[in-house]
Amino acid sequence: IQELKHKITKNILQHNYQINYPLKPLQKNQVENPPNIIIIGIDAWRADCFNETDTPNMWQFAQNGKIFTNHRSGGNHTKAGIFSLFYGIPSVHRLVFLQQQQSPIFIERLQDLQYQTGIFIYASIEHNQFNLDVFNKVANLRLASKGDTRAEFDASVTNDWLQWHNNLDKSKPYFSFVFYGSAHGYDFPDNYSTKYKPQRNKGYKTIAKELGVADSIGGYKTCLHYIDSLAKKILDDISQEELANTIVIITADHGCEFDDYGQNFFGYESNFTDAQVKVPFAIIGAKLTDNLQYKTDNLTTHYDVVPTIMKNFLGVNNDTKDYSTGVDLLAKNSQPRVWSFASYIHRNAMYCGIIEDKTIFQWFPSGFYQFLNKQNQPIFNQTINKQRLAEAVNMMTRFLK
After folding, report:
1. Which of 9, 10, 297, 337 has a Cα-to-Cα distance from 218 of 20 to 30 A?
2. Class of residue 16 by CB neighbours under 10 A (exposed 0-12, middle 13-18, buried 19+)
3. Which one, of 106, 127, 261, lies nearest residue 185 by Cα?
4. Alpha carbon distance 243, 231 (integer Å)
5. Which is it for the CA torsion 135, 268, 346, 182, positive or negative?
6. How far apart are CA 132 and CA 126, in angstroms?
7. Going by C-beta distance under 8 Å and a sequence separation of 6 or more, which residues neighbour residue 58?
């Protein structure tokens, strides 16, 4: 494993790979009346905080669709989560894709079908360099939000979306990505009416260390409730007639830990436990949810979003393996998965994990690896599943040559 990891990491970090994506040219059909697609995301949103109390408006809206209760991101930080969502492949590919400015074929297919595209991200889109890969082919890209705080940024996101939406050409479909950041920045307006007690309006790591976890969680949930009030304005702006031909996806880039397992981990980007990689995931749409084959408690991942939409709504006939490591959630013969792959690259170091129901097999930049339980505690004398490892390596390298 050390030799294998060293070889893959060295080639990716030194850009020795070329892109082989998709594996085959897309086979495309004409699409009649393609649906509008809206993705609403929250930065650092825990799966257990998607409910009728913390996010009541989005929760109520999602009752008209399917809420998947066992959904994992492709990583435990923003770059990995967004990459896995829009490309449908692990973020270990990102450095190569970024260096060669390869956009997702999902976005390219939307443009083929003349979708009007609006990207509304709370932070500067250049901060994570999404202007160079995920959205590099989107014209007139919105680069930043107005305001001085995360709460003001999120309000700007909402207002800009409403203006954009009300000026669309109604004869053409549209795609929009709305991404809120108040929960990540631990910020909400001082005069916001609903506040969880106890809470303090400053960084959750500082609060947890100074005052305890309870104060931290109270403020975090206040942030989510504030974001939910903004998302309601977007959902309310979609007419019933429009909604009949619209797919709405509600999710997050990664989770947020509050010392869940007593190891002094807060936030994200430190392990692959459910607290950091399990996220909310709901799909709402008249054309979609009645036909979903996966049970809502089956394991789903960010990798599944692109193949599901491409295969069923954008007229792409290829085997989904040609462009994704995910599965089509509408396919009748899809077998429920029993594990998922997560990764992230930090300061030119690659971290990867095979996450199963009860264990996490994690390996590090040095090639060192270990087995952990779902509370992030070491497990000793565990046998490596060679088939699982081979499948993970295939996911890591499938679209590189």
Report:
1. 297
2. exposed
3. 127
4. 15
5. positive
6. 8
7. 40, 50, 228, 231, 232, 235, 250, 282
Q: Is the pLDDT of residue 301 over 60?
A: yes
Question: How far is 386 from 79, CA to CA, in rounded Å?
Answer: 29
Q: Which two tokens stand for residue 334?
A: 């899809």
Which residue carries 């549209």 as its tokens? 174
Residue 365 CA from chain centroid, whole number: 24
Span of 85-99, 120-134, 212-226, 296-310 with lowest mean pLDDT: 212-226
Highest mean pLDDT among 170-179, 218-227, 291-300: 170-179
Parallel/antiparallel/unpaired status of strands 36-42 and 246-252 = parallel
Sequence length of the chain is 401
Please give the torsion angle defined by the CA atoms of residues 230, 232, 238 and 241, in that order, rounded to the nearest 10 degrees. Answer: 180
Using only the alpha carbons of the chain, give its radius of gyration: 20
pLDDT per residue as tens digits for the range 346-355: 777 788 999 9
How do strand 340-346 and strand 349-355 relate by DSSP bridges?
A: antiparallel
- DSSP assignment, residue 34? P
- And the tokens for 243? 């909604």
Cα 247 to chain centroid distance, Å, stands at 16
Instruction: At 299, give phi and psi (nearest 5°).
Output: -70, 125
Max distance between CA atoms of the chain, in angstroms, equals: 62
* Residue 241 burial (C-beta neighbours within 10 Å; 0-12, 13-18, 19+): exposed
User: Which tokens sit at 172?
Assistant: 């053409």
